[in-house]
Specification:
It is a single chain. The protein has 544 residues and is an alpha/beta fold. Among the domains are: 187 residues, ANL, N-terminal domain (Rossmann fold), CATH 3.40.50; 105 residues, GMP Synthetase, Chain A, domain 3 (2-Layer Sandwich). It has 18 helices and 25 strands. It has a nine-stranded mixed sheet, sandwiched between helices. Strand 13, helix 13 and strand 14 form a beta-alpha-beta unit. Helix 1 packs across helix 3, helix 1 crosses helix 10 and helix 2 crosses helix 3. The longest helix is centred in the first third of the chain and has 17 residues. The chain is globular, with a radius of gyration of 24 Å. The protein starts with 11 loop residues before the first helix and ends with a helix.
Length: 544
Amino acid sequence: MNGLMQQHDLLISSLIEFAARYHGDTEIVSRRVEGDIHRTTYAQVRSRAKQLARALDDFGLERGDRVGTLAWNGYRHYELYYGVSGSGRVLHTLNPRLHPDQIAWIINHAGDRVLAFDMTFTPIIQAIAARCPKVERWVALCEAQQMPAELRQAVPGVQSYEEMLAGQSDEYAWPSLDENLASSMCYTSGTTGNPKGVLYSHRSTVLHAYAAALPDVMDVSARDAVLPVVPMFHVNAWGIPYSSALVGCKLVMPGPALDGASLFRLMDDEGVTFAAGVPTIWLGLLNQMQEEGRKPRALNRVVIGGSAAPASMIATFQDRWGVKVRHAWGMTEMSPLGTACALKNKHLELPPEQRMAVQVTQGRPIFGVDVRVVDGQGADLPWDGASMGELLVKGPWIMSDYYESGQPSPLRDGWFPTGDVVTIDPDGYVHIMDRSKDVIKSGGEWISSIELENIAMAHPAVAMAACVAMPHAKWDERPLLVVVKRPGAQVTASELLAFYEGKVAKWWIPDDVRFVDAIPLGATGKILKNKLRTQLIEPASAGA
């Protein structure tokens, strides 16, 4: 016997409709690429998103057609999120930090028919336009008078976004869609081989938005002012553009200015209470807070994801500045959220060191995500906080296959293999020890490069640290610590190695330390360990 409930598809258009109806005057604040601060509201975003939908109708775009974006976090990009997906097309956010060759490949593989871009990325557009024959319309996210003549010459038919919306009516009825239709797509960063496309649905996106807003996940409400530092081109800014509409919070978007001083000022001016971003971003903000001698006036919590947050960073936020930290983990293939580290009641009375040992984990699975840890033969390992194996996941917002990859689905009996080496404790707290490709195998035993990096980051002289496996005649691999010093700081290799004593097993301690001016980062702010290993090996080979 079925229940007697109304049947309504879960659609992205319903999010902006809800926000406009019940939080219509709530502000959306953007620092534009032009440098000024722009203010709009949820009601105005809905209106302009509908104008955009009408313009896409005029372009002749069909349901399912892809609209690409190369844009920072800002109100026009936010309008694209709703106008494109709400009208039945597929929003395809592109990462401008990738190489132009990769960007062109992704555009062609996705089959984008329209490409909207911030003026910051004009050089990329000029470099790739001739190589993207499927793109029929190029749209600059600006006023008509702001487009330089050389852009019009280099990209025939390019049009400004405001030009495109001008004259369009906002009288538009969002189409009734099947909730399982594609709504947006993101590509992985392509650190090995070509990037791979992940295609989200309306249903998966709305469910993810609900889950992300939960108290034990991001814990956002209409009383918050939320700043997503994580880019809208990086896994849909971890779902914040959708969760923000779902709860009706004030939304503050930083545009291209992601340095510590700019973020501090924007947070301070706009009363930001909650922000989300990767560790490299928070290093800059913490340095600015140190200079200012205070935190942004309203900031009370941050979410850190993208890569593991060092205990020293969590402690600085919480103990020095009174800002609560929530560690989170996910992947492009997971929409992206999978776990969040909210403490349980029993953790609150623990001594600080034991409590921190929980906080540095990636946390418990959120409702909608199930997890397993398996050995090399696929057998389940115990949740004892010590047994290390590969993490498998499944759930309604986790992908089933890559978009037109030409390869079999990566799923194993319905589970997605993440490639992360983890432990899981009896309460379900997942602790990522390494990526399977980065874990250090020394004498047949595993060493966590992440744990060694986090210990190094706790040293006051260290600005950034990476630990990589280097070939060893006897042990196969041994850890090498690579360090960028803080400006003006002095520390020796022996002092850093001594810093590990008593913190890890002796055989885990790196064999040596290499000091460098910079550590290579990828398009999403993660350390490129393959590139780093190559840089470290080549000089040694050249001198041999």
